[in-house]
Amino acid sequence: MIDFGDFYQIIAKNRLSSWLEVLPAQLANWQKQNIDSRFNQWLNSIKHLPSISPYQIDLLHSVTAKSKEPLSTGEQQRITQLLKNMMPWRKGPFHLYGIDIDTEWRSDWKWERLINHIDCLEDKIVLDVGCNSGYHLWRMIGAGAKLAVGIDPMALYLCQFEAIRKLLGNDQRAHLLPLGIEHLPKLNAFDTIFSMGVLYHRRSPLDHLFQLKDQLVEGGQLVLETLVIDGELHQALMPGERYAQMRNVYFIPSVPTMINWLCKCGFSGVKMVDISPTSLEEQRKTEWMTSDSLADFLDPNDLSKTIEGYPAPIRAVFIAKK
């Protein structure tokens, strides 16, 4: 079982305290429903990871931890095997005591594309929606956030996060909760909210934007990253059964359409701050994620198209204020 008691104690003392009216029951219910053998195996791997007090941590430029004395080869191999029990690792990378978790995604590249465009995170309470293993939560802490909360309902990602947190010395500034945005009450409490790689997985993108808005303080900032297409205002791609082999892709807007959606939901100061095609160097197979990746999802004869014939992935970052 994962113990969320430390998180309850932290939010009892800040403006998230009203969340305690529903959160413990929600998490208790989630834990009852996630009792399959794999979850217990992942928890067992976390249990057997060593409790290390890092001598040096860098969360500003990367997610890196070092010990005063190098770990022995045997210790590194044991930690590596315990972490590989939690494959696939999709978001990272992590550099821990000489062990490099080379994840499918170079999530650090995404962070570098947006960090210079967003409001300062110093002493802020922030939320990362669909946070996966929580890589960006640590970068938010490195950028000065007082508390970084991630939500993602997948049990694997919770376990990956807890494994990294243990290896970082049980840092209590970041927490991952196995919930979706639809499970949150209207908290109106976060200074900055990140929704990265989520919108196109939502049947109703506008409902998702309203849900995000309901979590922000007045004047708070939304940082939204999503797939986009090249197109005019009011244009969006609604793929068939699959897009780049993903089943649950519903709407991919043009940039003007995305800006219009944000404005229609009542956000102000809306602007796009970055647009980048996803490269084969940014998303790829590694020894930590050995199943198919982007190279397998594109037309081998025309890398500007997905295997289904749609435009290849282009991602844009938008910022907006409540």
From TrEMBL:
Q: What is this protein called?
A: tRNA U34 carboxymethyltransferase
- Keyword tRNA processing assigned to the entry: answer is yes
Alphabetically, the GO molecular function entries are: methyltransferase activity; transferase activity, transferring alkyl or aryl (other than methyl) groups
GO terms under biological process: methylation; tRNA wobble uridine modification
Keywords, alphabetical: Methyltransferase, Transferase, tRNA processing
The catalytic activity of this protein is classed by the Enzyme Commission as: 2.5.1.-
Catalytic activity of the protein: carboxy-S-adenosyl-L-methionine + 5-hydroxyuridine(34) in tRNA = 5-carboxymethoxyuridine(34) in tRNA + S-adenosyl-L-homocysteine + H(+)
Whether Methyltransferase counts among this entry's keywords is yes
Show the SUPFAM superfamilies listed in the entry. Answer: S-adenosyl-L-methionine-dependent methyltransferases (SSF53335)
Quaternary assembly: Homotetramer.
Functional summary from the UniProt entry: Catalyzes carboxymethyl transfer from carboxy-S-adenosyl-L-methionine (Cx-SAM) to 5-hydroxyuridine (ho5U) to form 5-carboxymethoxyuridine (cmo5U) at position 34 in tRNAs.
Query: Which protein family is named in the record?
Result: Belongs to the class I-like SAM-binding methyltransferase superfamily. CmoB family.
Positions with a binding annotation for carboxy-S-adenosyl-L-methionine = K91, W105, K110, G130, I181, E182, M196, Y200, R315
